[in-house]
């Protein structure tokens, strides 16, 4: 392994101290502790309080250990346990003050799921540490460094070092890499957030990654990266027309989209980074976000040598509304409604179309017109979304243009028994991605694509199957018996949406000859998360891809998969 590229900050792992005990329950500060598992409005008469804005109190049996605050890939229904508003605010969480949109995991605010430490340090708010009485952690002095006497100018430092290893019996259905491959990767992300009062801030973040192992393969720019700029932007904030507004200019991550459509490439070593401008406005119950980005070319193997990728573009508009809550039986349901346009242009393998045993290279420009409605009550949670994907595909060789007409549907819903010490979530996930025909090289393109790395574990831990020409149905079981321990079980069943189209992986269509039948296979899988302390997390994934008879007859292989992620964050 080229360990010379690993940042020295990794040595901080050896000096991490356990955090102070958080008490014997999951109860938020100031919450009622009379009856475990009861969810109560903070004040007022039951049924008249809108829990979208009101505080909730949840008490669950636990131990005096750090809380599992959020998963990087959580999504609105993916939390290990129900997160109340108080648990998502300082000092328990670091969500910014976005009013009603701070509720739950905070994803509805447009900056991804935010816990105490998360995948978006640029979206965390540590200003509460201005009060030194709030300091209770070894790293707190680095999270709020006052630069002026009144503390209105301050600096926040952030860091992450991740050790990831994974082994595969038959990588990518046996079509890539050697059997029994075992790989190892190190990633470092370290940044600084400079606040110059309430209206101006600068954020910068460095990235470095390396990979090695036995039977290794695919160590491209997403796995190996010399030290470079991952993010570097200026944000201007103000209040206009009754809204909290902001303008972010520069290189930045972007998480204001359903995570099953677009995410920040969390699992590979080098996350996605975009170059451009983003503007947002947040009113009491309505939020708007508009953006225009081009990609980042990370393929150069030199320090600080990334360039703008003008051939890749992402732009769009998102509107999120927080409707008043409504009654369903004895419970109040709070929810959010997203309406969005996500447009993009890509070339290369992401845009290529399979045709018989060849590939049609070209450029595609597509527009996703869609919605997502998500929310929940004390005992159940849901998320449902759909979109139409239009656009065009231009063939490189001849310049021939073909229209795109594709679609997708995504839903997950389940029951959560808050009073139980196991804090179980029992649900069902269903997904549909349209397919087309790989037997034609003309006419409308019907295959849906999501080229910008959707949430890795949303469909399948192995990542062997991509969201194209796919029908997926899976039970979901999640148990969180302790504040520091969570388990999840899934078993997605996969079918091709169109038997005239191929099976797709993350690098495009699989070259499987004489593929028959619609059933692709089933992937029983489990994950175990251990929150060792505030800064150390160990997550392990295990799965077995069981291919269908048709898949194996066409040359695909079944195989086992294991992955371990050991992460240090501050």
TrEMBL record:
<dbReference type="Pfam" id="PF13372">
    <property type="entry name" value="Alginate_exp"/>
</dbReference>
<feature type="domain" description="Alginate export">
    <location>
        <begin position="154"/>
        <end position="561"/>
    </location>
</feature>
<feature type="signal peptide">
    <location>
        <begin position="1"/>
        <end position="23"/>
    </location>
</feature>
<feature type="region of interest" description="Disordered">
    <location>
        <begin position="66"/>
        <end position="99"/>
    </location>
</feature>
<protein>
    <recommendedName>
        <fullName>Alginate export domain-containing protein</fullName>
    </recommendedName>
</protein>
<keyword id="KW-0732">Signal</keyword>
<dbReference type="InterPro" id="IPR025388">
    <property type="entry name" value="Alginate_export_dom"/>
</dbReference>
